[in-house]
Amino acid sequence: KSYVLCTLAFTCVTFVAGALAFWGPLFTQMGVKVQPNPNVNVDNVAFVFGAIAMTAGLIGVPLGSILGQKLRIKIPYADPVVCGIGLLFSVPFLLGAIILAGLDSIASYVVVFFGQIFLNLNWAVVTDIVLYITIPTRRSSAEAFQILFAHALGDAGSPYLIGVVADAFKPYIVPPNMTTTTTTAVYPFITTTPTSVLFNTSVLGFDNLTATLAAPEDHFITTTTVLPDPDNDYVEFKSKQYAMFLCCIVNVLGAVFFFWNACYITKDKEQCDMVIAGSLEREEREAGRTTRTNSSSSSSSGVSVSSHMSEEESEEAQQAQNLLV
Question: How many domains does the chain have?
């Protein structure tokens, strides 16, 4: 159970990491374009975002490993808890970075930096979890399968999924100052006045223009027609912004899997330690049995050699006696 839950949680981590790596720089550039007074150069966004991601990884990965090792002494199930708390703490920072991208790019950089630090707390810890809940002869296979599933179901498809969700939002996003207003007249059926006869003829297909001019003011309806432009910078940014909120949801789901993993991690580690201890005992017994067998065979061979040498010596002594006689 610990292995399955850890793999599912790590898949959520790679999903978010892949989406941020692919869409993060482009999304930040879109945010700069829609800002009324941008405070960064749009051409440097990719470089700055990459530097932030690299620095956050250099800090977050060793920090997660240190926290896991220190807390594991007092709390046996500390490793998945550290990972889960890291994912939960990253959610408000990522949420703030997504919202601030269209308002203040520098503030968005600062917030996403801390969000990625918390997101990177679990990389080394997850590897440690897999190693100590798996017996030594299966550890390499366990790591390989976890990497396969985590990347195949995580960062391999997350950029595409974010793009699909963003395209689905585009028709429903209204850019500023992109509306037109039209006015139409309603023609009621009234048969008591000459004006009403004019309304009836208009309904039946006669002079619409004349009927419109003769209609009372309370029979006009004003309708607003929205004309969205899917290639508008505002539409592009808002659609990606709504789609990027999916990363926060997946982060929460990954934290749930890590906390669920904490319920089984201690028991699974103890079972793995018992299996390893039993294997060592069997190896020691087999090694002792082999040593005793070798010792007994060496002793018997030594006795046979000594007896053979004694017989040869007695024959030589007999021959020497015969020569003397």
Answer: 2
